[in-house]
Each structure stands twice: as structure tokens, then as C-alpha cells.
Amino acid sequence: MALNDLNSQDIAQDITHDITQDEAGDAVERGERMRGGGLWPFWTHIYAQGDPLPDLSCKVDRPEHNFDEGDELPEDYRGLLMKMLRHEGERAGNKSFLGLMGTCIEVAETLAPDPAARLIKSEYLAEELKHAIMFHRIAVGLDPDFALRDVPYAHYAFHLPKDTWADDAFFHFLVDLNGAFHARDWRESSYAPLRKISRTVERDEFGHSEMGYHFLSAICAERRGRALAQALLPKWYSAALDMFGRSDSPNTPRFIQWGLKGVGNSEIRAAYKEYVDRKLVALGLDLPDERQGRRFL
User: Fold this and answer.
1) Of 181, 183, 180, 176, nearest in space to 157 by CA
2) Is 35 helix (H, G, I), strand (E, B) or coil?
3) 26 located within any domain
4) What is the CATH number of the domain that holds 156?
5) Full-model pTM
6) DSSP conformational letter for 164
7) Who contacts 196 (Cβ-Cβ below 8 Å, separation ≥6)?
């Protein structure tokens, strides 16, 4: 079947299904989809215990907007929405995304400690390709020319060197978690196609982050591995905090007023930092200075 023959319902019915705690728990009991050495998907056990991410719903008064694919969009709204999608990058027509996936395969082949870790990374790649189809369909619905445009990843976090397996683990734990937080913010999005996929993307990206944390936990279980992780942490920590943009961005009030975001950059970054800090301390790591090495405050 050609990619363009797919619609959002054809990709998979469970893609946009909001899985409840009971359903996630039942999946665990039945052993459904427990791939990757019995660990995948990593999100299942955690969501079965409750919602792991903080509330990012909008707390300020704003107009109610609701737009769907094919609707005529106000110029400012359309511009902000396209800006979001350019930063997202996970599109089947984006050559840079496919290149990033190729790099992930190379990292797994050269740095993964064992076949089990490589198998887990293959599950990650399969899920990211699923996202590429989902975002491709959203892009086609907005602008077919954009859907086929190569948009290189601009943020420096995607270009940091990965010389060790610990680097790759930090990348997934921190950068994929950024994706989960943003997808969480889309739960109340005024653009229906984003709202429909938000919960699936959120839990998948959370699972990718937990995959990285799983690898980090094994690394930090040994003294030498923990020392390596401690040495690498400042590089990845500052980049991860920078991924939320400038706290004083003039675009933030517009995003919130149009219903494309629920909270500002500083609020979502603070919630992210609080979550990440707890996880890092649990590994026995010392937290870096949150301003050291930062480019966007």
C-alpha cells in the first residue's frame, strides 16, 4: 500500500486510542506487545500505575479555537502551526529525519553492549517511523509542498557527538522526554489533528525516554560507568533544558492565545527539570549547574 493511501485510521486503530490505567494494566497481565526482551513498550508498566507526567493544561483565560484539516486557518495561526511542525521534524518526507534514524542504527551497531540492546533500539526505530507517518499526514493536510521538504534539525542537541553508549542513553532519556512533554501539551491543542495523536505520541516518546533511562541505569550500576555518566551529564543536561527555547520568547503568548500551547517555555521547562532531576538523583548522579553551558535562558 502506498503511503499516500493511508489515512489516520488506517495507520493503526490503537494509535490515537487513549489507553486507560486499567487497559495498560491488562496489557501487562496478558503480556501483550511485550517485545524487546520483554521490556517493550517501556511506557506500559508506568502508565498502568498512573499518569507519570505533570499537568500542562492552560491556566489562563483565552479564546476558544478549534480547527481541523481542511479548515481555512487565520494567517497568524497557520504560521505558528507550521513553525511547530518544522521543529517537530518527524515526517516521512523529511530526508533529515530519515538520516537521523540511519545514525541511530549505526550507533546501535557500533556501541550497543549486546544484541538485546540492539533489539530494543530496533523497536524504538519502528515506533519513530510510525510517528513519521502520522506527522506526514498532518503535513500533507496543511501543505503538500512542505510535507516533502527537507528540514534539517536546527537544535544543537541533535548534533552533539555520541562517542559512547552513555551518550546515546542520555540522548534518549532527555531528548525523547522533551518530545513527551510537548506531546502532553498538545492534549488540549486547538488543531484537531495534533490533539488526536497527542496521547499516542506522548506515551511513545515517554517510553523512548524510559528506554534511555534503562540503559543509563545499567551503566550507572558500576562505578566506572557512573563516573562516565557524571562526566557526560553537563553536556546533555544543558542541551535538554535549552530545547524548550527562550523563557522570554515573544511568540509564547500568541501560541497560548491560539490554543496551540497550554503553557509557556519557562513553565514547561521547570516541570521537565523537576521530573528529570528526581530521575538523575535516583541514579546516584550529582545535578549540574542548570545555567552552565546554556544557550537559551
Assistant:
1) 176
2) strand
3) no
4) 1.20.1260.10
5) 0.89
6) S
7) 8, 16
